[in-house]
Structure formats: structure tokens, C-alpha cells
Amino acid sequence: MAGSSRLTGAGDPEATGSPATRRRATILDVAAAAGVSRQTVTRAINDMPGISVETKRRVLDAASTLAYRPSRFGRGLVTGGDSQLGLVVSDLTNPYSPELAAAVVRRAAAEGWSVSLVDIGLAGSADRLLHSLHAQVDVIVGYLGEWALGWESRFGATPLILLDAGADSPHAGINLNPAAAIEDLAAHFVAVGTRRPVVLDASEPHATSGRGSAMMGALERRGLSPELVHASASTPEHASAVTAQVIRRATPPDAIFAFNDLMALGVLSACRHAGLDVPRDIRVAGVDGLTIGGLVAPTLTTLAVDFDEVARHTLELAVALGDRRPDIDLHRVVSHRLVLRESA
Amino acid sequence: MAGSSRLTGAGDPEATGSPATRRRATILDVAAAAGVSRQTVTRAINDMPGISVETKRRVLDAASTLAYRPSRFGRGLVTGGDSQLGLVVSDLTNPYSPELAAAVVRRAAAEGWSVSLVDIGLAGSADRLLHSLHAQVDVIVGYLGEWALGWESRFGATPLILLDAGADSPHAGINLNPAAAIEDLAAHFVAVGTRRPVVLDASEPHATSGRGSAMMGALERRGLSPELVHASASTPEHASAVTAQVIRRATPPDAIFAFNDLMALGVLSACRHAGLDVPRDIRVAGVDGLTIGGLVAPTLTTLAVDFDEVARHTLELAVALGDRRPDIDLHRVVSHRLVLRESA
DNA sequence: CTGAAAGCGCTTACAG
DNA sequence: CTGAAAGCGCTTACAG
């Protein structure tokens, strides 16, 4: 190595060993290698007319040799580039997130948008993630939770579409409304003779969820006296634990309405381990309409979210906001739908 | 509208109604509005030193009024931009895809990469999707299937990392190896007294999958005579149908090894509907290690993929290829691991 | 069929 | 603290 040229000090690890990171080839490098101008390279690379087959071949060979790749920034600057959607979910390991993502990705592809996926539930790095996402995309959509607070001052004019953040949110948003489906399910419970229903709610601090209290009300209005219990965490495991306690009583419930499908799976599991038959001994229902609910045994009755509908609104809002054309209804509502299956 | 200026013809729909799409504000617009130079705008927007609080305020106000957002292309051209990974899956509705995606997104975030998610199983549009993806990302990784053929000629030098494409693939790749886990499971089956195992394979045309024949061999070597059956499609529903037939026989199987977890769920479902107890009457195992397998009742024994390990290799390869530094092992292997749960 | 010029929107030195 | 200049890598007219 003595005598070889180097730009860095002797102690620099970058200066030692193996083929170092080479500067990426640009259009000018290819042009020089092929002995043509850069616009001729553009013609060859982009398959445009007005270039002889022989020249094209020579250019493409040079490009290949140099491992040339057009810079998406250089190109995007002049063409405008594709639109990019940033999808933020809070926990990719909850099947709810990918079902939403699948619908959004599908719809986005149909509209010519790309989607960058971010899991904001990741330990500590949420702020950094949002910063880098906001620099890469045209519109951000998703479950931002507390991170939506002070958005304007932190991320300037990056349009934001909030999922299920409430109708009074200052941002554009899509809200889920389970009210009608809850009434339908309550009516169904009554119709099949339920007497002692339990509402198994999530673990929101000191509070009852909207869907929890809605179900309580719907059952009470029909003359039942539902019991409200909370899981200490919104997981199938905790749902299972609470269920195990409740069904061990002298007069156990004959129906359990779980906060979501994942928790309902925990309920099903606890019932099975206790030797209870669902739905004969006890009925179970969840919320979300996850695909998995149709694959377990018994299949799960649920209040399903129409993810395609959510995705449709998402892209509609994204396109409008991306075009700086906010002359549309910025608050959409998607209703849940009762899907009766074996468990209830 | 008469007399108002318009650039387009009278019949142009763009010329009618509502605030039309305005040109997006640039840094120069903000500079003009605030009465400063563009580099002062840069300082304000990017929170850099060397600017008075009062000037900064004025610039930020102007930016806000104009809804200014820095162009990611302009910025990327000079800063280099973040690295972007394109993740291609074949079917986002199969839980396998999101579990992989979750791991990759998590790891990518840790390494400062963004990931764009594409579902190539979408009707017909695969080619268009790959084209637009290849223009947006630095490296593409995933299940490309037949689309990996002729990659070089179609997408030039865009680095490609193939998942589970076989060790003889010309591209960089990560391969899954179930061999050892299959031996472990076969040994377990034998140890617990299995006599009549069935291997329920996927519906690959006229062929037996690698894992299917590996399991057949592993069982035969242990003195058993396993039966091989194929589902007419690789879905839980078809797995369910085949299972229903097989367990109806005079001497039904006492164990079923399914091609993957999703099909194993179908098997569980069929067993339950037939009144068979798992694992007492019949044992069931799948492949993939999906989270859902731990949530159903009975919980599913499986050969688990270490998605974090796959993600780790993915990012390692992506970084190396993105840096044009292919002096590393371009073919990685991740082994399955036997996870014994209730079903077997 | 090919190339010289202009410009997309930014940031990074550098000069005041 | 502020601004004039240069340049990132590409494509789009335009001229030959």
C-alpha cells in the first residue's frame, strides 16, 4: 500500500482493505464511456425514439459496465416524480395493521402512488421516523396518536390524514363508526336468548372505550344488565386471563363481546381450555373483521371494518391534499358491519 | 367566468369550477414573500444556526402562508437522501407477508432506511409496479418469482435480493432451510408414538414441495410409512377439505404435517368439525411460525422462520449492494426452528 | 440521428 | 447575520 494515493489519514478504517465504496456513476460518466452526449444516454436508458440501434447498444453496454442507475432525485426534479404516501401504523404485529396496509397498498398501486410503511410503535424512535418519513412522502396517513399534536409547527405543511382520531380533529381524517353494527349485534344477542352478557373492554386508563359503552347501552336498552370488565392490557393473553376468571363463576356469562378480534381470540382460547363449547355454552364476538377470524374454529362473529372503503377514502383525500385542493369533505366516516359467523 | 384569464380551451374540464391545482411553492417563492434570499429560507426551514430569531419567524410565517414544502428531489439531489428499500411480497393478505414486512420495517428503521411496500400479486399490474418501484428505491428485496427472470436486461443495475429463490440463483438471496427442523419434528412424531402420519402438501403442479418430500423422507427413515396428499390449492379452505376426506377413513391418520401454518389452521378447523380432539386423536403441525399459531386453540406446533434473522440479512445485503460493495457473501441461509405447542 | 443550452429545487461552501 | 455563486443529476425543448 505504500505510495498508493489516499485521501484519508493512516488511521482511517475506510482507507484499508477491499474495494472501497466507489462514487456512483452518473449520466455523464456513461456518456463519456460511450463517447456520446448525455441526452443520447437519456434516450437509450429511457427507451426513447431518435437514436440508432447501434448507438443505443453502445450506450447500454457502457451503462451496464459502470452499473449506472439514474438518480431518482435528478430524474424526479425534472419529471415531478411519482406520488408517495406514508402509512403510519402503531403496531405491525397486530394483524389489524397489515390488513389495513394491504388495502391501502392495493388502492395506492391502482392510483399510481407508492406507499412507504412505518411502524411508529417502535421503541423510542417515533420522532426520528416521522421526521425522515415527512421528508420522503407527499402525504402522511395513519394512526399517529399523540404524535399528531403540534403537527403544524413540527412538520410544516405536510398533509396529514388521521385514522380514527375523532370527528373533532383539526386534521383531515377517516373515522370508524361501529354504532349501527353494535345495535345489530345487541339485537342478535337478544334474539338468540342471551341473558348474561359481558362486555370485555380494552385497558384504556380509567375509562371505557366508545364501543364498550355503546354496547353496554345497546344491551341495556334491550332490557339486559350487561357486565363491564376490563383487561389489564389489550392483548389476547390478558383477554384470556379475564375470561378464565369470569367463566369460573357460579353463574357465568352466556355471551362475551370483546374489544377487538385479537382479544376475542383470547376469549375463545380460554373457553376451550375451560371445556366450554362456543357458541352452545357461550357466545363470543369481536371487532375489526380480521381475516383470521374466518380461519379459526369456531369462526369468529365480528363487527368488520371495510378496509377497502377506508383505503378508498385515504387515496381520495391524499390526492386532493397532495394537489393542494382541499375543497372536498375532509372528514369521512366508515361504518362497521356485523358479520355473523359460528361463534355467535 | 367571462373575461377571466384562462390558459386552456373552453371545453377543458380543468378550467371549470373550484380553486384549481396551484403550482407548488418553491424556496424562491418563500424568499420573495419574506423579502430574504433563498439560503436564509434554508436556514429557517432546516433549523440551522446563523439566522436572527426575527428573520426566522418572518420566513416561517411566509412558508406557512404559502404552504411551502421542500421538494424531496431538490433536497435529495444535494444531500444524497435517505436509502430506500423496496419490499416485494406476493400476497399481503397471507399473514406470512406482514410478519416478514414487520421485521424488515423494524430493522430498516434501525438502519435509517425507508421501506416501500409492494404487493406483486395484484392483478396484472406486476410489471408496472416493478417499473415504478425500481425508479424509486435503491435496492429491491422480496419474493419476485418469475419476475426475477431477465432482471438485468429490464431493470439494469438495480440490486436485487431474492427471498427463498434457491441457492443456485444468480442474484443475491436469502434462502430458508427447513431440513433440520423437519428432522426434529419427525423425531418428535416418532417419540410420541405416531403411527399413520400424513403429509399435506401444497398444490405445486405435478410436483412435491421440498419440505413435503423432506418430511416424507424423514418419516420413512424412521420406519414409518407416511402418506402424501395434495391440496388442490394452498389455502386453509382446501386444506380443510382434504383433511375432512382423510379423517373420514376407516383408519384415519394420527398426525398431519401441513405445508404451512395457514393450511394447518384449515386442518385444525376440519378436525374440530369432525369432533376430533387435537392433539389427543390427531396431531397437527405447520410451517412458518406465524404469530396467529400461538393465538388459536389449540396452539399450533410449527417450524418457525426467524423473521428477524431474515430481516438482518436483508439489511446487511441491502447496505452492501447499495454501496456497490459486493465483497460479501451474497447467499445467506436461515434455518427453521421447531416450536412445539399444543397441537403436536 | 445527435448534441449544446437551460432549468427543475434545493444545499453547501464562501464572501461579505 | 445575510446573500451571490456553484453545482447536485437528470430531462425537455430546441438547433443542427
Report what the structure shows.
The structure is a homodimer of 344-residue chains. Residues 1-20 of chain A have low confidence and may be disordered. With 344 residues, chain A is an alpha/beta fold. Helix content of chain A is 38%, strand content 17%. Chain A has a 6-stranded parallel sheet, sandwiched between helices. In chain A, strands 7-6-8-9-10-12 form a 6-stranded mixed sheet, with helices on both faces. Chain A folds into 3 domains: 13-78, lambda repressor-like DNA-binding domains (434 Repressor (Amino-terminal Domain), Orthogonal Bundle); 83-176 and 308-335, Rossmann fold (3-Layer(aba) Sandwich), CATH 3.40.50; 179-304, Rossmann fold, CATH 3.40.50.2300. Chain A has 12 helices and 12 strands. In chain A, α1 (27-34) packs across α2 (38-45), α1 (27-34) packs across α3 (53-65) and α5 packs across α12 (307-322). Chain A has helices spanning 27-34, 38-45, 53-65, 72-79, 96-110, 126-136, 151-155, 179-191, 210-220, 236-246, 261-273, 307-322; strands at 83-89, 113-119, 139-142, 160-163, 172-177, 197-201, 227-230, 255-258, 283-288, 301-304, 331-335, 337-339. The interface between A and B is large, with 72 and 72 residues. Chain A binds a DNA duplex (16 and 16 nucleotides) through α2 and α4. Chains A, B: GO terms for molecular function: DNA binding; lyase activity. Chains A, B: Keywords: DNA-binding, Lyase, Transcription, Transcription regulation. Chains A, B: Residues 25-79 form the HTH lacI-type domain. Chains A, B: Residues 1-23 are annotated as: Disordered.
